[in-house]
Amino acid sequence: MDLRRLRYFVAVAEARSIGKAAERLRMAQPPLSVQIRKLEAEIGAPLFRRGTRGMDLTEAGQALLTRASEALALAVDGAEAARAVAAGRRGRLSVGYMFVLANAMLPRLIPELRRSVPGVDLDFAELSASTREARLLDRSVTVALCMPAINHPEIQVARIGAQRFMLAMPIRSPLARLGTVPMERLQGRPLIALPPPEQDPASSAVAALLRRHQIVMPIASRVETVHSALSLVLAGEGLAIVPACAKLGAPRGIVFRPLRDAADSIDVAVCWRRDSQSPLISRFIKCAEKVVARM
Amino acid sequence: MDLRRLRYFVAVAEARSIGKAAERLRMAQPPLSVQIRKLEAEIGAPLFRRGTRGMDLTEAGQALLTRASEALALAVDGAEAARAVAAGRRGRLSVGYMFVLANAMLPRLIPELRRSVPGVDLDFAELSASTREARLLDRSVTVALCMPAINHPEIQVARIGAQRFMLAMPIRSPLARLGTVPMERLQGRPLIALPPPEQDPASSAVAALLRRHQIVMPIASRVETVHSALSLVLAGEGLAIVPACAKLGAPRGIVFRPLRDAADSIDVAVCWRRDSQSPLISRFIKCAEKVVARM
DNA sequence: TCAACCCATACGTTTTCGGTATGCCAATGG
DNA sequence: CCATTGGCATACCGAAAACGTATGGGTTGA
Description:
The structure is a homodimer of 295-residue chains. The first copy, chain A, folds into three domains: 3-87, Winged helix-like DNA-binding domain superfamily/Winged helix DNA-binding domain (Arc Repressor Mutant, subunit A, Orthogonal Bundle), CATH 1.10.10; 96-159 and 272-293, Periplasmic binding protein-like II (D-Maltodextrin-Binding Protein, domain 2); 160-266, D-Maltodextrin-Binding Protein, domain 2 (3-Layer(aba) Sandwich). Helix content of chain A is 43%, strand content 24%. Chain A has helices spanning 3-15, 18-24, 29-43, 59-87, 99-116, 129-137, 202-212, 226-234, 279-293, and strands at residues 48-51, 54-57, 91-97, 120-126, 143-146, 155-170, 181-182, 191-193, 219-222, 240-243, 254-260, 265-273. In chain A, the strands form three sheets. In chain A, strands 3, 4, 5, 6, 7, 10, 11 and 12 form an eight-stranded mixed beta sheet that branches. In chain A, strands 1-2 form a two-stranded antiparallel sheet. The A-B interface holds A 1-4, 6, 42-47, 49, 58-64, 66-68, 70-72, 74-79, 81-87, 90-92, 275, 278 and B 1-4, 6, 42-47, 49, 58-64, 66-68, 70-72, 74-79, 81-87, 90-92, 275, 278. The structure holds a DNA duplex (30 and 30 nucleotides).
C-alpha cells in the first residue's frame, strides 16, 4: 500500500477522469492509468467504472476514497507538525523551577513566554535541586530554572543573572536595626541551612561565603526550601542567608539586610540537556533574561 | 511523502533501534538507515537522537509518530474496507419498492436480509414505477422490487415469482357471492385503473387480460397505487383487478375473488443496473425469492 | 465515415530501492 | 591500554518500479 498510489487514486476520483487527473498531477496519462490498475489489483476489486466519458467510483472505491483522503491529510499534517515542532512553532516546553525563584519570576515569565512561543504548551513543575537534574537528564523537563546552575557534563547552562545574598531575621532581632550587617556579627549565631552541597549546591555558596570571612555559624536546622528556612527564622530558631529574591512572598515579621563587605551573589541560570537542541530553549532563555533583568 | 518511509519510521520508533526494526521488517540494516535519513531530509529536521545504544525519538519525531501511525492504520483500513464492500461484507443496499409488494414482503424480507448481509446498511424507499427505473439508472437505489419487471436495456431482471390477478370488490357486491368470478361478468362494469402502461407496466397486463377475453370495462378512475384503487372500490366507484398480494393490508369491506378461466398472473421481479456487479444483489435476490415463495 | 476523446498496452529510459561489504564511534572488558 | 562488541553510516552494485513516448481500440458525435 503506497501513498503515491493513494494520492493518484484520490486525484482520479476527484477529476473523474484519468486524463484530467494526470494533467493536474503533472504527469502523462498512461503511467497514471497503470498505477490505478495496480491499485485495483492490490485491492482485488475494481475501484472505478470505466465509462466512455471518464471514470466513476464504484462503491468499493468510495469506501477507499474517504479513508485514503484522511490518510493523505494525516501524512502531510504529520510532516508539517514535525517541522513545526522542530522550528519551535509548536510543541511542549516543560519547565522545572525552584519556588524561591519562581515566586519572583513566574508572574512575569509566563506572559512573556506565551508571547514568545505561541502555540507551545507550557508546563511548570516545582522541583528540588536534585529532582531538577534528574528530570532534565531523563528529558521529562526541557529546561530548569536554577540557583545556582547545575554542574553536570550532560547539562548545559546559561547564566541569566545573579542574586545577592541577604541575611533574613525576625523583625525584632537586634541586627534588624542595622541597615547593613557586618559579617563578624554573624559569628556564632545559629544558622538555618539548606540541604548539604551534595544535595543542593546553593548551600555550598553560603558555606564558601562564611568560610572566606572565617565565620562559624552552628547549624540549628536543615530544611528543604528557602521558605521553610524563613518560617524557622520567624520562629526564632536562627538566621538564614538567602538570595534577595526570597523577599517576595516572605512571611510578615521577617526582614532582610545586606551583608557588609560581602558582595557575594548566587548565579541564576537556565539549564538544559546538552543534546536538546530545541529552539524553544533559546527563546526561553531570552524570556528569562528579560524577566530577571527587571527583578 | 511515502507510506513505506512512514512504515519504516514507525517500526524504528517502536523498536528504538534501526537494527531491530530492520529485523522485524525482514530487511537489511543499511537500507533502513538510508530511508530514515531520507525521511529526516524530507522533513528537514532530525526525528531521532542517535545514541550509542540505539535511537530515540526527538520531539519532532514524536509529533510525526502519532500521525504516521494513524495514517498507516487508515491506509490499511481503507484497503480492507474496499475489499469488504467489494465482497459484500459491508456497504449499503438501497431498495426501491412498491407498496403493494412491500407490504407483504418487507416484514419477512428485512430480517432475512439482516441475516444474509450482516454489516450492510439497509435502506428502503417506496417509489413509483417510473421513479424506481430512474433511481436504478442514476444508482441512487441498488435494486428495485417490481411487479412487473422493468424493461430497459441497462436494467437486468430476475423473476422471483408471480402474483395471480384477483378481482377486488365491496363485500356487498352481488359478485361477492361467487367463489370465482367468470370473466364475462365483468363486461361493462366500471374499472378502477392504475396509470397507463407508459407510466406503469402493471396496467398493461390488466389490459391484456381484458382484451384476451374481449371484455370492455369503462375506466371510472385512474389512481396511482393499488391501495388507492381499493379505497375507491370500497366507495363503490368500481371494481379493481389487482395482484393477490394486495389482500394484505386491504381495508375491511373489500373482498377478493379469483377470475374463472383467467390464470393470468403478473411477474414479481428484482431489477438492477446491468453494470452493478455488487454481490449484495445476488444475496438480495436469494432472500427475496425465499420470501416470495412463502407468500 | 471521419474526427475527437478517453483509456489501455508496449517498450525503452531513468529513478529509486534493497543487499553486501565496510567504516566509524563509543562503550565494555580483560 | 588495547581488543572486542554493538550499533549506525557510507559506498557500490544489481534489481525493481515508475515515468514518458508511441500506439491501439472503443465510443461519441458531426
